Amino acid sequence: MSESSQxxxxxxxxxxxxxxxxxxxxxxxxxxxELVAAIDVxxxxxxxxxxxxxxxxxxxxxxxxxxxxxxxxxxxxxxxxTPDLVYKHTKEIIECGARPVIGTTGLSExxxxxxxxxxNSKKIGTLIAPNFAIGAVLMMMFAQKAAxxxxxxxxxxxxxxxxxxxxxxxxxxxxxxxSEAQKKFGKDNCAETETLKGSRGGLTESNIHIHSVRLPxxxxxxxxxxxGKGQALTIRHDSFDRTSFMPGVVHALKEIMKKEEFVYGxxxxx
Length: 270
Known about the structure:
Layout: H1 3-6, E1 8-13, H2 18-29, E2 33-39, H3 48-53, E3 61-62, H4 65-72, E4 76-79, H5 83-95, E5 99-102, H6 109-122, E6 126-128, H7 134-146, E7 153-159, H8 169-181, E8 202-203, E9 209-214, E10 220-228, E11 231-239, H9 246-256, E12 262-264
Parallel strand pairs: 1-2, 1-4, 2-3, 4-5, 5-6, 6-12, 7-9
Antiparallel strand pairs: 7-10, 8-9, 10-11
């Protein structure tokens, strides 16, 4: 078998977006990956390499996801698009027999369950990860551990002002992991009255408050604050550049090829 045929054939959906362009670079830089398709509604027919790195890579942009995946024989598809598209895209990728690696957030629990059932029934490894930064995944894991011992906690997440969904998928995933360790937070809190509606943020079923901040100049940031008698613990992660997500994306592409089921969260592949 030739070196080329041993590489994982990768398609990128949302290739012209800020995250998509970073994925293109990361795939082209890795000797075990081969870029075979680029999907976007912008720059149709143009070489994605010319747009991303000012040099041809021989992959032209298409706006048809299903045809691109089938014609290129892509084995895995990375999707960083929008919440209103990712549900349809993920199902199409699975139906084409390729493995989805999804970084787009905003999917409802019902849609996640449907994707899970589809992936498992077809035995196609499928990853949906709220965050691909290794440090952010560790932050979530540390917060889960801390939740075993401290039952008062709040989450503050800050993103750029072009992010459409709130709270972030990372904040939701963090709260879910913390709730596995502690069923109810803030049990001793007094009854509250909001004089300005929403000032206490969103509230999870386990009583964790999540506060979302959207400002220009930021990328992706989150802190989990625990409070206890005479003490506080803050676990924080900052992504200052989108390159912070790429080692996780590359790792996920290689690991998802070994899976035949749905996986939620990059920590399951570490």
